[in-house]
Design a protein that fits this description.
CATH topology of the domain at 56-157: Barwin-like endoglucanases
CATH class of the domain at 56-157: Mainly Beta
Radius of gyration: 24 Å
Strand content: 25-35%
Organism: Penicillium vulpinum
Distance between the termini: 71 Å
Keywords: Signal
Number of strands: 6
Strand order of the largest sheet: 1-5-2-4-3-6
InterPro entries: Expansin_CellWall (IPR051477), RlpA-like_sf (IPR036908)
Helix content: 10-25%
Protein name: RlpA-like protein double-psi beta-barrel domain-containing protein
Shape: elongated
Largest sheet: 6 strands, mixed, barrel
Structural class: alpha/beta
Length: about 160
Amino acid sequence: MNPNVIFARKAIAMIVLLFMGLAVGAPMDSNEAITSHDPSNPSQGNNTYSPIVGQAYGGDLTWYETGLGACGWYNNGGDYVCAVSRIVFDHANVDGNPNHNPLCGRRIHIQRGGNGIDVTLVDRCEGCAEFDIDVTRSVFQQLGNLDEGRVHTEWWWI
């Protein structure tokens, strides 16, 4: 085969591949990309996990000793705060910094039997199953006895 024909075919193939790469990488809409993160705007979160207000989740309720949480805030055992599983927390991640997670500061209602309590999400629970929730001692005592350690509960975003 003629070397000029081979060169021409390779050149055309390279140009086609170049244009395909540019087309795939180009944004579809100029408003599509978010250029900065605003922690007060939860709509900027990763949409692979979007909390649905009022949808009930069932899981185990446990308690833990607080301190510096994944959201970057210090809390103590008397605060009405909680941690959700790493699965739920990480799916909402924005930029790799847990302090920017749009779930931080979100309110959750926890219900066990006839007792319910509202808490604020401030932390990530490494050992929790997907819909388990970890709370402070004071929150757990509102819903059960500390000696129980682990009880089934329902919770939802408010």
